[in-house]
């Protein structure tokens, strides 16, 4: 059922694991797929992956290798550092320049807390507000009815503020001005201007592969046992889902959009699931070995059926994105480009699944930003288990 181009990593997995892909095989536990400690990647820096990072992040080969290794360390350190920070936590992010995880602590943090955080290997920076204060501010904004001229809002732990992104051409709009005034009353808020409003990337089970439903083409996110996950806005409520070759795959078993942007599709009729994300010839097909969350500042790559493979960095987490169809919450913003048809496709950091493509602005010729819905939220919502190698 799979295309012949799915040969490199995918075929290797089929040959080495064989019947492990068959329906009914006992899956790895969900807790193992999302445990606090990142499992070391066996091959985190294939030649193709390094080439993509070098191109999109303007790095040398040595810089790309060092960055991947440092990001793995930061991802493993983050849960321990957050626990050590306790109530003084202001947020965490990856500092690409220093190659370390940075933890924001409020000025009143006890010295014992500072020492405990540093003992995890993280750097410390003083910030004005706690993560709890910033999260509460964002939650207040989530209850407001945002006009179309407000693109999104998210917590920026480095600046210790909630950033509200307003479309520059709409900043004088009365509804936008009222929203901004109410936002400032909600807590520490900073307004920034963006060039355009976000849109979803839907057009007209391997991550990045196309699928069709109704008159829409989207992209597969990640294989789970029994099916695959993708973007909720791809569900046209027509029932049947068809694969790249237009043969029947299955049906949407659950979806949510707006408020969330996730869905899952069952797989049958001769289709099967594999823990692979397509590299589209830019990189070798990537094996999926878990879903540990990469911190803000980490590199991340996306696979989709329109623009294939592109990389960038994680810019923000837990951002609320105000699409024309309604707000979507708890999204992760990236500097990766995308275009219509890429919706639902895979975001992956090293060999760790991050999320499914939702929408953004711009394109892959002039650049842009793209949001994804985090994978672990989808797995938890539907009680699914990620198919890992």
Distance between the termini: 20 Å
Strand-residue proportion = 25-35%
CATH arch. level architecture of the domain at 200-382: Beta Barrel
CATH homology group of the domain at 200-382:
Trypsin-like serine proteases
Coarse shape = globular
Radius of gyration, whole Å? 20 Å
Please mark out the parts with pLDDT under 50 across 5 or more consecutive residues, or reply none. 1-43
| Helix count from the secondary structure assignment | 8
Mean pLDDT comes to 87
The main sheet orders its strands as 17-18-19-22-21-20
Helix content: 10-25%
Overall structural class, as computed from helix and strand content, comes to: alpha+beta
**What is the H-and-E element order?**
HHHHEEHEHEEHEEEEEEEEEEEEEEEEEH
CATH class of the domain at 200-382: Mainly Beta
Which fold does the CATH topology of the domain at 200-382 refer to? Answer: Thrombin, subunit H
- Major sheet summary line: 6 strands, antiparallel, barrel
The count of strands amounts to: 22
Keywords: Disulfide bond, Hydrolase, Protease, Serine protease, Signal, Zymogen
GO cellular component, one term: extracellular region
GO molecular function: serine-type endopeptidase activity
Family: Belongs to the peptidase S1 family.
Describe it.
- It is a single chain.
- The chain contains eight helices and 22 strands.
- With 389 residues, it is α+β, with helices and mostly antiparallel strands.
- Among the domains are: 47-126, GMP Synthetase, Chain A, domain 3 (2-Layer Sandwich); 200-382, Thrombin, subunit H.
- It has a six-stranded antiparallel barrel. A five-stranded antiparallel beta sheet has the order 10-11-14-13-12, with helices on one face. A three-stranded mixed beta sheet has the order 1-2-3.
- The two termini are 20 Å apart.
- This is S1 family peptidase.
